[in-house]
Design goal:
Layout: E1 9-18, E2 24-27, E3 31-37, E4 40-45, E5 55-61, E6 70-75, E7 80-86, E8 97-105, H1 107-127, E9 134-135, E10 138-139
């Protein structure tokens, strides 16, 4: 077992690649996806109890060259992850995305995982020259910009 996070463990919940229509390209096989509205995807996770407390989810929208998309996550509270994808104007848009989730075991793991997810997101925005954004209530102030 890799111990890069010290004595804390990160257990995978699920991960996958999803088309803009909500079709699963690939993944762990323990989830289904429903495109419930424009830009809104509900991911039902099976075989594990998922909550927003203790789980770290990272979503990366897939966009063409020169196009920046944003994504947020929330939960319905019923082992369901909700992914919302936006354009830069703050409009919900259907968009393909990749995601992964880990369950943090222990406080140190939670902090390490949150920092890692924030750095990945910040780097993605920085690649497009975005240092700060507040789009449709999505505030990126908490990202670690390099």
């Amino acid at each position: 077992m890799y111990r890069g996070s010290g004595s804390a463990n990160l257990l995978p919940i699920c991960y996958g690649s999803v088309t803009s229509a909500g079709t699963i390209n690939t993944g762990t096989g323990n989830f289904t996806v429903t495109n419930t509205a424009t830009g809104v995807y509900t991911i039902a996770i099976t075989g594990i109890t998922y909550t927003t407390i203790g789980a770290i989810i990272s979503v990366r929208p897939v966009a063409g060259s020169g196009v920046l998309r944003l994504a947020t996550t929330s939960s319905t509270g019923a082992n369901e992850l909700v992914v919302r994808t936006y354009d830069l104007a703050g409009n919900l848009v259907n968009n393909a995305f990749h995601f992964f989730g880990v369950q943090a075991i222990g406080t140190n793991a939670m902090c390490a995982a949150q920092k890692a997810v924030a750095i990945v997101a910040a780097n993605e925005l920085a690649l497009h020259g975005v240092k700060h954004a507040n789009i449709a209530g999505i505030n990126t102030n908490y990202f670690y910009f390099l």
